[in-house]
Amino acid sequence: MERTLELIAIKDIRPGLKNLNVIFIVLEVGHPTVTKENREVRTCKVADATASINVSIWDEPGKLIAPGDIICLTKGYASVWRNCLTLYSGKNGDIQKIGSAQAQSVTPVQQNSVSSSKVPSGNTRFSSETSGNGKPKTSQRGKGASRSGPRGERR
């Protein structure tokens, strides 16, 4: 079974955009940062044929992604974190490995002239429960609790 997605090129991603579907290749996977809630988050550098961007990957999916993986992120959103445009998986979003650059002799996905693409299902799927804003579910902050960013750092 195949599904049709409206894909966006990384060069067209702007802060505040939501419900983004992007296919990219993983260039670098950052070291994990452990939050106060004992969750791991990694910042990955990814790219398509048009540009590169940081992607924030939480928990188990971050352990499974490696440089060279071709990933389809669905229902994501873009925001600025520490002066860098960053892509996040949304509440009902999905991060799915659809291929590997080492296993294929292809160049990164050409999206300049592509408005939609068929993505095969049944590939490796990474998912993590989120709170609706693409960030993992955490307990509510109590009075006097510190406000922290996606990596647990104080803002």
TrEMBL record:
<dbReference type="GO" id="GO:0044818">
    <property type="term" value="P:mitotic G2/M transition checkpoint"/>
</dbReference>
<dbReference type="InterPro" id="IPR051231">
    <property type="entry name" value="SOSS-B"/>
</dbReference>
<dbReference type="GO" id="GO:0005694">
    <property type="term" value="C:chromosome"/>
</dbReference>
<keyword id="KW-0238">DNA-binding</keyword>
<feature type="compositionally biased region" description="Polar residues">
    <location>
        <begin position="104"/>
        <end position="141"/>
    </location>
</feature>
<dbReference type="GO" id="GO:0010212">
    <property type="term" value="P:response to ionizing radiation"/>
</dbReference>
<dbReference type="GO" id="GO:0000724">
    <property type="term" value="P:double-strand break repair via homologous recombination"/>
</dbReference>
<dbReference type="InterPro" id="IPR012340">
    <property type="entry name" value="NA-bd_OB-fold"/>
</dbReference>
<dbReference type="GO" id="GO:0070876">
    <property type="term" value="C:SOSS complex"/>
</dbReference>
<protein>
    <submittedName>
        <fullName>Uncharacterized protein</fullName>
    </submittedName>
</protein>
<dbReference type="GO" id="GO:0003677">
    <property type="term" value="F:DNA binding"/>
</dbReference>
<feature type="region of interest" description="Disordered">
    <location>
        <begin position="104"/>
        <end position="155"/>
    </location>
</feature>
